[in-house]
Amino acid sequence: MSIVKGTEQIVNPLQRSALGKKGLCDYVINVASGCLHGCTFCLAPETLILYSDLVWRKLEHARVGDELLGFDENITSHVYRFFRKTTIEAIQWSKKPAYKIVTEVGEVIATQNHGWLNYRGQWLPTSRLTSFLENRKDGSSTLQSIEVAKLGKVIGKPLKGLERAKVIDKISLGVVDVVDIQTSTHTFFANGLATHNCYVPSTPAIRTKQGQLKDKGVNNPQMDWGKYLFVREEIPEKLATILERKRTWVETEAGRGVVLLCSGTDPYQNQETARITRKIVEILTNHKKKVRILTRGLSWVKDLDVLKCDNVIVGMSLPNLDDHLSSQIEPQAPPPTKRYQALLGYHQRLSFGNPLMLVVVMVKG
Q1: Cα separation of 92 and 156, whole Å?
Q2: Residue 296 half-sphere exposure toward CB, CA atoms < 13 A
Q3: CB neighbours (10 Å) of residue 43?
Q4: Are 249 and 241 in contact (CB under 8 A)?
Q5: Which of 1, 11, 55, 196 has the fewest CB atoms in 10 Å of its CB?
């Protein structure tokens, strides 16, 4: 499918959000349906995944709400990652090029950008894995594996003492059926190996607007994710009207009344979304509302005059610091070096008393 762009109408742009449970916000505004960054990670349907009851079950039978054994995505303040219960939040089937990874503990089929935890505690995509026979010293040929018989009660315990699994071979399989799952910790165990979560597009547009999207040329909103974007140009006008009339404002202890831009798309992915985002921020701050922005884009630096406000926090995601690797994981997003340069430029422009940027950094590998 080629890239499809257009506009979309929306009745109420300001929606209550369940993300308050994670301390992110109480409200969310999505400036568009779809996203053009194209971030994906996948495994084969027959892959065995480890549930929280320490039983291996096939990925193809997994359901949203199932509880798996996971672990902290990043090292905590206690120097370790810890075992956690993790819940499947979304699932997507598709067909993509994949590889068979042969290790000492077995085989697993995955796409080239699926993430694995190596013995050094670094995240590496399939594309970076090499055979131990190459005798490289960069950790690319030894992964972390788990042996259920040795576990016992592990929830809350440090993720240490896991087995090492040497990579023996990596074989290209061409295009095959694969499954994405998204978990609450962003981690789980697959065919004995510690692996990273997939990011599954599961927005209201996908769940409830499939008919409208099909009329616009999008036959399968999930499988075509990354290839369509429908901007909601009416949001600023409708938001202003809503805020003028709104008499109550929810402020939970975790969400603090924050409005998130965005939960299902990137507010600064192109000029159209950036233009609307700027207007939205101006309206929200004029009404003394707290705003949190999450983006991989770069054009927010042009809006510093409205973003440098006590009520605004901007977060930028850096899944890794390798431009080549990033081009495989998130092919349409700006390279991480450009994002990092944008952050440095922002820091250099700060004057005393301006708010600091919240930087969302997830370094893998």
Answers
A1: 29
A2: 26
A3: 24
A4: no
A5: 11
pLDDT in tens, 294-337: 888 999 989 989 988 889 988 887 766 777 766 766 778 888 88
For each of the domains in the chain, give its residue range(s) and CATH number, in order of start. 4-38+204-361 (no CATH), 48-196 (2.170.16.10)
Give the SS3 label for residue 304: helix
Would the pTM of this model clear 0.85, i.e. be above it? Answer: no
Query: How far apart (Å, rounded) are the C-alpha atoms in residues 72 and 236?
Result: 38
Name residue, tokens 């406000």. 309
Residue with tokens 């055979």: 131
Spell out the alpha helix ranges (H) of 219-322. 235-245, 271-286, 304-307
**99 three-class SS:** strand
- In angstroms, rounded to a whole number, what is the distance separating the alpha carbons of residues 97 and 107? 17
Query: What would the two tokens of residue 335 be?
Result: 């390279």
